[in-house]
Structure formats: structure tokens, C-alpha cells
Amino acid sequence: MLRWKKILVATDFSEPAGRALRSAESLARQVGGVIRLVHVVQLPPAMYLGMIGGKGGLEETWIEAARAELRGVARTVADQGLEVEEILRVGKPWVEIVDIADGDAVDAICLGNSGHSALERLLLGSTAENVVRRSPAPVLVVRDHALEKIRRILVPWHFDEGARMAVRFALDRFPDATELAAFHVVAPLPPADSVVGPLIPDLAAIREEMRSSLDEAGAERVGEEVRLMKDPAAAIVEAAREKDVDLILLATHGRRGMARALLGSVAEKVVRHADRPVLVLPGPTAGESQSGE
Is the pTM of this model over 0.90? Predict the structure, then answer.
């Protein structure tokens, strides 16, 4: 099977975007894949452009400067012997990125995540989170560490088809990984009695069920771990640091359209806070996973 044959890399010329590009180059080298390098120029509002000296000429200057910088980045990719295509768009970054992916059947989207402050999410939303919500292809989000050698992979486990799909994807796309771990988070149950306190689930039984599910999915070499913690996303990020994994790989829950756009999912929280690469797979659609959603 051809892997990573066509990778869409979004760049805003930041350091995280540079690490995302290095990650994509590493994947593309496996099969001589093509890097489709895209930069989206997000112009200020027309009113603002008018206030600082006219709309038309300033817009063109902005766009041409971006085109020149994009050409320089593409040249560095070509100098390494990789095939690269340049794409310049004007608009809202996540909208343009998803539009290209929708029309071009890419194997993955790769982008950096530098904007995760509460203020930026309130005013603009995160480009990475919006792409994850709507992408038809796997999305690799990179912040502090480029994805180069892939030895240890953490796969959050939810006892659903999305988790099984993520495990199968890890085994297929990263056969040289030396450690694959399925990681399930269990929250303490609400207290039945204020004196007794919260009930603790049977972690050993849950781990045994995980082992059985993994074996049934053909993932005998994937290890399993269960952790007790209220916040699943925080537990995943914490475990990834502790285990020093190279990649967190998870799937969304298969919602589409507005239901997915409004979903404050574990995947989005992990993308927002993880300090190492996160690969998010579009989950099975509602019709594939369950009826009536």
C-alpha cells in the first residue's frame, strides 16, 4: 500500500509550521511522496486597509510578499530531492486548507499549532482545531517537536470503532514503531453516599476487556494501560510526556457537519495542549458506526 503519497502542508512561516514541514518531509521520503505546500493570506478587513493607505495596492503587496516567502520555503524542500507544489490562497486559513483537501484526495494534512491562547481561541478560533473538526483526511498537528523517528506511539482507547481504526492505522502506517500502547482513561464514579465517597471502577477488569478487544482487532503486539483520572484529555497529554512518545494517534467520533463543528471533543483538547505531534483520523461516519446519529 502506498503511504503518504500526497501530503498537504499548511505554513504560516512560523517555527511550529517549520517543524510541521520537517515532519511531512520525513513521511514523504518513505515513498517519494509529493509535498503540496500551501500558504493562506488572511488580509485585514477592507475598512482597515482603507485607513492605512488604500486597498488595492496594499493587498497586492501583501500577496506578492507571501508568494515570495512561500517560493523560498518550497525551494528548501526541492533542494532535499522531494517533489513540491506551491499553493497560495487568499481567505480564512482553515476554510482554504479544508477546501484544498476536499478537492484533492490528500493522504494527510500537516500543520503547526502555535495559536492556543484563550484569547486567540475566543477571537478567531484555532486553525488546527477547525481543520481537525472538518478535514476529510488525517491531520498531523505539530507544535514543539517534529515527527521524525517514530518509535513510541500512544493510542487513546474508547472501546469504539474509531479507536480500533486508530490502532489498525498505527500498525499499518508505522510498522517500524517499537512501542504501541492503547491508553484508556476511567473517571471515578459519582459517590453513592457522601460518607463513602466516589466509587472506583474495577481497573483490572477494564484492562482485561481492553486486552481482549485488542486481540480481536489483530493488535496482539499493542500494549494496554488504564488510568484513573477525571479529565481524559489531560490524562492523555500527561501520559504522552511521561512515556516520551513520538506520536499521539487518535480518531474523532465520526460526527460530520454542524454536529462535529460544535463538538468540544477530547481530540480537540489534546490537539490544543499536547507538546508533541498529534495525528487525528476522521472517525467512521455516523452511518457506519451507529444508526440514527
Answer: no
Domain 6-142 fold is: Rossmann fold (3.40.50)
Question: How many CB atoms neighbour CB 8 within 10 A?
Answer: 27
Architecture of domain 152-289: 3-Layer(aba) Sandwich (3.40)
For the segment 20-70, what is each residue's pLDDT rounded down to a tens digit? 999 999 999 988 899 999 999 988 766 455 555 555 577 888 899 999 999
